[in-house]
């Protein structure tokens, strides 16, 4: 009897051990083996092109755009706030005062201008946009595309509004169908901006015949108090920044001032997407913040905010990817996000990360 009891305990322990191991090893990516054509995702790290010096010509990106077009993405995402997040930031502007002003300004302005013509608030415009896009089909009339332009703008998506505007023949880029003179002027102004949402995402979407881009950023930072944020930028950030700027990896990273020709711009983007460089810089910036000891562990809290933001971005990208199961998704983000998003997205059941080396070579 004692032998039987001992054997039972051994079997139970083995079962529990196996169950624990199974739980620890679970990964949604294992389901990918059951999918013949997983959704392919390229995460392109970029510098923020709005930092370019006066006189910089975005045409030096033509060779890069050729490489990106060769990937033939079905979905393009950009590092800007989606309409609901913009609306939330504004509604909670007393909580997120800096984020509301810095990251929601243009979308709110264009949304309010479009809303006057359409007599719709942001959620109403989003609902009407979905109905409208379902009705117009693949070859909308100029009037239908102008209305799409106005609805995208009113819903808090200025970059997709620009895609619709640019897909109109130049003779049809005129006020009407919800596009007021003021909104038309704002769209023309946006089209002249030297930023990646315009010169990379929107222009590529038009070139490929896509109807829109997807905004996937999330600046809803609710981790550090204002006082803790002050401590971080006074005590942690200067130390980390000094190490960062002194490291050879920072000097190797692609820079916009080096983008003087199409060939040089492509070379700079290869460096911006070099995993070796980005891993080293991430160690300095984020592991460095974790290691820097202060009252309240503000460095660790700042990393928690960073990880939370990237997780929300990854969720938005995954949601956008559902529009094209088995298709191709191009994610355009600041280079610092690249490794984090590839790590998070690579855990998904229907995502295959494609190296930028395959299209930037």
Automatic annotation (TrEMBL):
Residues 1-18 form the signal peptide. InterPro entries: DUF5694 (IPR043749). Pfam families: DUF5694. Keywords: Signal. This is TraB/GumN family protein.
């Amino acid at each position: 009897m004692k032998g039987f009891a001992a054997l039972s305990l051994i079997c139970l322990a083995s079962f529990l051990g196996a169950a624990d191991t199974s739980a620890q090893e679970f990964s949604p990516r294992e389901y990918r083996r059951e999918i013949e054509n997983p959704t392919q995702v390229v995460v392109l790290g970029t510098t923020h092109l709005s930092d370019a010096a006066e006189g910089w010509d975005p045409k030096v990106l033509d060779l890069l755009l050729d490489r990106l077009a060769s990937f033939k993405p079905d979905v393009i995402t950009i590092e800007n706030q989606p309409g609901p997040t913009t609306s939330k930031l504004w509604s909670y502007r007393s909580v997120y005062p800096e984020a509301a002003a810095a990251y929601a300004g243009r979308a709110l302005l264009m949304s309010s201008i479009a809303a006057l013509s359409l007599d719709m608030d942001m959620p109403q415009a989003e609902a009407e946009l979905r109905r409208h896009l379902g009705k117009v089909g693949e070859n909308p009339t100029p009037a239908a595309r102008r209305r799409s332009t106005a609805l995208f703008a009113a819903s808090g998506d200025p970059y997709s509004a620009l895609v619709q505007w640019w897909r109109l023949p130049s003779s049809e880029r005129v006020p009407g169908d919800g596009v007021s003179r003021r909104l038309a002027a704002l769209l023309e102004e946006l089209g002249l901006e030297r930023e990646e949402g315009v010169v990379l995402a929107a222009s590529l979407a038009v070139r490929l015949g896509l109807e829109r881009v997807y905004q996937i950023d999330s600046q809803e930072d609710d981790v550090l108090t204002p006082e803790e944020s002050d401590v971080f930028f006074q005590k942690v950030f200067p130390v980390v920044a000094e190490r960062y700027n002194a490291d050879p990896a920072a000097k190797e990273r692609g820079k916009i001032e080096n983008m003087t020709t199409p060939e040089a711009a492509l070379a700079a983007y290869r460096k911006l997407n070099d995993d070796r460089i980005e891993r080293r810089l991430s160690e300095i910036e984020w592991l460095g913040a974790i290691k820097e000891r202060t009252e309240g562990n503000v460095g660790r809290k700042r990393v928690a905010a960073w990880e939370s933001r990237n997780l929300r971005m990854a969720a938005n990208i995954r949601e956008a990817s559902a529009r094209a199961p088995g298709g191709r998704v191009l994610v355009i983000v600041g280079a610092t996000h690249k490794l984090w998003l590839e790590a998070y997205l690579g855990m998904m059941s229907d995502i295959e990360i494609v190296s930028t080396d395959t299209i930037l070579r």
